[in-house]
Amino acid sequence: MTDDSPALDLRERTDDESRQRLARIEATWASPKGFLGWFMPVNHTAIGRRFIVTSFVFFLLSGVLALAMRLQLLVPLNGLLTPEQYNQFMTVHGTAMMFLFAIPAMEGLAIYVAPLMLGARDMAFPRLNAFGYYVYLIGGTAFFLSLFFGMAPNAGWFNYVPLSNKEFAPGYGVDIWTTMITFIEVSALTAAVELIVTIFKLRAPGMSLNRMPIFVWAVLVMSFMMLFAMPSVIVASAMLMMDRLVDTQFFVTEGGGSPLLWQHLFWFFGHPEVYIILVPALGIVTTIIVTFTQRPVFGYTALVLAMVGIGMVSFGLWVHHMYTTGLPLMGRSFFMAASSMIAIPSGVQIFCWIATMWGTKIRFATPMLFVFGFFAVFIAGGLTGVMVASVPFDRQVHDSYFVVAHFHYVLVGGAVFPLTAGLYYWFPKLTGRMMSERLGRWSCLLIFLGFNLAFFPMHQLGLEGMPRRVYTYVPEMGWQFLNQLATVGSFVLAAGFGLTLINAVRSVFRGEVAGDNPWNATTLEWATASPPLNSNFPQPPVVDSHTPIWDWQQDDERPVVGGLRDDRRETLVTTLLDARPAMVQVLPGPTPWPFVSAVAASVGFIGLIFSPWFYVFGILAIFVTFVLWFWPRHPYREK
Amino acid sequence: MRPERRTSRRPLASSRCTVLTAAVLALSGCEGVQSVLSPASEDARMVADLAWWMFATAAFIFIVTIGMLITGIALRHGREARRISFRNATIMVVIGGVIAPIAAIVAVSLSGVMIGDEVEGEAGIAGPVIEVHGKRWWWEFRYMDRDGNVVATTANELHLPAGHRSTLRLMSDNVIHSFWAPNIQGKTDLIPGKVNTLYAEPEAAGRWRGQCAEFCGLQHGLMGFVVEARPVDDFARWLEAQASDAAVTEGRGLQVFMDLGCGDCHAIRGTPADGQKGPDLTHLASRQTLAAATIPNSRGNLGGWITSPQDIKPGALMPAFAPPPDDLNALLTYLEALE
Questions:
Q1: What is residue A359's predicted lDDT score, i.e. its pLDDT?
Q2: Global ipTM
Q3: Partner B contacted by A460 (CB < 8 A)
């Protein structure tokens, strides 16, 4: 093992004193074991891992729903699914892919990787972190379970009113959507808040903002976007919930409300949402390109500005989802220009990456192959994106299969390819073992081919007049052949993801042992053991560039922070811009109260579907559990 | 109405078709009755031309970008790593990431505003005003006279005078629908509490299909309609016929119709049946399709639709009826007489 890791300092020393000290630190930061222990850990590595695993479970389940829909569309007038089932599957597929997979997967990766990249020992609010996870787990599970009771929402993931009003959507389906989505977004908000604080205040000494890894910048932009976008959907779904439960009339025309208000509120969230998923993926791509070319990224500042730019512009585009609602052309034109403006930061990033890779010896391992897949698919999706920004063209293809093709190219190309690349890339850090390269290559090939076979024909289908969200079509339309191609492609795609799943499960047990830094990467998560030590860094590192590990290799020395106590969870707080050491924060230890609070909140939210009185119950129950959560206990008291 | 321009474009259109759809897509053909790429109006043609321009440009940008990526990577072979100079890399990023996108933004925005203005404009309105009502899950078309009175009401079939710009007023009293007849015009939503306007100007006589494009519930998938453009005189005759009362206003079939309660939802002008929930059946036999452009209008299909609509369109608001065979026959004979 190369001696390039501050984490190894104590581990490599053989004298008794160092060994005992390491053992003490590790015991202080250990998570409880056993069944009850499962409800207590607060370390970001434990929570992040759970987020990632849970989100991929939802990804697989939603993927199965997509396969069922593809089978239904295999032949015209197919009777495999009833319209009701199809609409439920479609709604749950869309909602779950967005709210239960894409956002939480990015959050989970951010929660797992970002603090390690920052050289922090944990996140700023570890218990809030745990609370966010349980909220997500319970909310997501309740949402998905509704499908098995046949009472899943069926009004589409966008839930347009009046279709989602009580009159046209009786039953509990839409109530489950509004309450559970509001609930899950609480989890996204907690993640956003603590990621921002962690990134601003818990960076390793010397990691000024301009030395922060690009991935962390991406997470920061994502978090701020969540902070501004999520309240919009929370407000909108709360209003819809009230329309349905207590007869407010926010969206009812006869009561002075407006159906278009819902669309504005929903897309004010819904469009940034796409970039909330995309931006961290851009960070993943940058990270992997840097590692596999072994070269610092070209245009660091340009890349950061591009991501910040995307974050800002993304809040000014939402009306391009509403080109067909009869708004004045002048108003739409503004959003047409704004929408196509996204091409600038995207173009800057793509060419910065090409410049980084230009003439280098690239290591063609699986993560890099997925990044190449990202390039092809995402650029294609981006180009159709500029097309649909055009008002007259969009009025033809809006809500047709062309748009289905477009956003799958953008979301799968822009988020799922990088996320899968990230899975292969960080898997050794998570588990200590490598994933199989051979299976990985096959998986990448199948995913790439299957994806294009499934979604490319949809462009043509849309132009030939096939609208979205249809449970079937008449044979005279001539859409059958392209639909069959798409269905075959979807199964190839599923087989590709199946290979990655098998690969991951096998590698957990039988993968090659990875070592601390198998890819010879430069960011700090590779400067601790794989999987990371309980404390991440027994002696937190000090950095003075944005390629710290490579610097240490060159200089053959590693500055570290000393003087932190080893009998309680201490981490270093640094200043916002320059990351000068400012103070020591004592972080709280394991506790079951976030779990209990999350359960109380869940009962309150789920109960709302049946009676408004659960609102009162929820507030009281959460108040009590919060008091117990914040009750001062051992780590805070001086001995 | 620029015939010379049109004829010069026809051969081009078919060759373009092969460009995009080479390989796998070629089999599907480009002639469609519900297709963006077979425009039948000047409005739709401008948008289709815009689409082809954008496809070609996008394909070019895609090839150049991926080509640069591959070139950059391929350079390493057989040599030491060849780093690009900072200056050249900056030039590449500025051209590819700033200048080219700005050119694209300007082109997309200007063409969008200009074509949008033309397509959505009311210049040259000469055709009738037609109210389009989105129902669950079918279409009602009401033809208005100059004073805004309803002349004729029909369902699931939009008839237009060829060569005239007709005004469509889109409205809904239930959920949001979207009117989309891609050969004629881009889509516009039917939103409760709001009246949207759309212009339709088919160049020549012809028959196309349209469909609801905004998810509207169980039968969204089969909420289609027929668009038929006729020469102006022909259209006037058709409208006159549609405006008249039913051809047959008595008889056993009508009795069955009333006894079954059909008249509570359907209207047959000239008879006591005056329901407003379902399609107006006054001239049912003149229509080409049943159940919102889902099945051809034949005696067998009509019988099937009356006795088991839920098998044809699960969730449709039309209940099933099971009259004795004699009654059903009389009913079908009557409905078939409603020319």
A1: 86
A2: 0.91
A3: yes
